[in-house]
Design a protein that fits this description.
216 residues; alpha/beta; Nucleotidyltransferase, domain 5; 6-stranded mixed sheet; 40% helix
């Protein structure tokens, strides 16, 4: 009874999101859908900073679903001018902005129960989870993959060359010869991450059969 009482307080869009996780994900790798995302934020503090924009696209069977992308700009009251040179989003810009409480339901409707992919995913997921917390909601339920971690799986292990602890998105773009034309926009960075993810999958496929378990 207690569980049902707790779930009853949540809005309908959250209940619909949670219901998507009742069936199991497809067992065939080619049938899995990945949502590659990036967030632009006012800073790096998951508690006090806020999301300025979310960019996301879907990837299935080694193909980017170019007709199904998400780009959301979020109205900000807390604004840091020092972050503008990084993402170029101004408080009074011409972008159509929506409130955080509108943005999160739109994001959940888009991401569904799909597997989330991001570069340094802990930060982006942490920022979204903080937004969920402000709305009185639990954390995201999706499986999440980090291209920074996955990239290290592609490296040849050697006593002579030790892998770095962290690889930036710029480093992955250079490694895989990916254009950085739209770098530091949420959707642009999501697109770069998606291309890097496909390159990583191709390299991992050379070593063993691709399965979700091997990527986690």
């Amino acid at each position: 009874m207690g569980i049902f009482n707790r779930s009853a307080k949540y809005p309908e869009y959250w209940k619909e999101y949670v219901a998507l996780f009742r069936p199991s994900l497809p067992t065939e790798f080619d049938q899995l859908t990945f949502v590659v995302l990036d967030t632009e934020t006012t800073g790096f503090d998951k508690t006090n900073d806020r999301i300025l924009s979310i960019g996301a696209l879907k990837l299935k069977s080694d193909r980017i679903q170019v007709d199904d992308m998400l780009e959301i700009y979020i109205t900000q009251e807390a604004f840091k001018k020092e972050s503008v040179p990084i993402h170029g989003i101004l408080r009074n810009s011409n972008q159509d902005c929506i409130l955080e409480e509108e943005a999160i339901p739109r994001f959940l409707k888009y991401v569904k129960n799909h597997i989330i992919v991001a570069h340094h995913a802990g930060f982006d997921i942490g920022m979204i989870n903080s937004a969920l917390k402000r709305l009185g909601l639990p954390k995201l339920k999706n499986i999440c993959l980090d291209t920074g971690v996955l990239f290290k799986k592609t490296l040849i292990k050697s006593y002579l060359v030790q892998p770095k602890d962290h690889y930036s998105l710029d480093e992955l773009a250079e490694k895989f010869s990916i254009s950085k034309k739209d770098r530091h926009t949420a959707l642009g960075d999501a697109y770069i991450t998606a291309i890097a993810f496909l390159k990583i999958l191709s390299k991992l496929k050379e070593k063993k059969e691709l399965t979700l378990k091997n990527l986690k």
